[in-house]
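Reply to dn_fold:

You asked what the input looked like. This is it:
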Amino acid sequence: MAFMPPQGPQGMQQAPTSPPPQFTPQQPAATAFAVDPGAISGCLFRYTFIWPRFGNGFWFFPTFVGRTSVAGFRWTGRTWVYSGLDLRFIQSFTCV
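and this is what came back:
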């Protein structure tokens, strides 16, 4: 039987119960146009640092990867908030 994470409201997975790491990882080389869904799917249910094309980087905990987007929980600095991102707007990422 496959592992199924606990479900929250509207069927979305529950947020992590602890904050992300307190460090910012080193940014890897940027991708050309968009992040490949197959690449970021290796970060499912892991703390992932996202460098968006615009704005500041942030910790993310992905729970779903689609063809053109990723959804999960974004760390606000105080709590986890469920959100989604278009893969075209991610410059690079790394998961720990």
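The first helix runs from residue 37 to 40.
Hope that clears it up.
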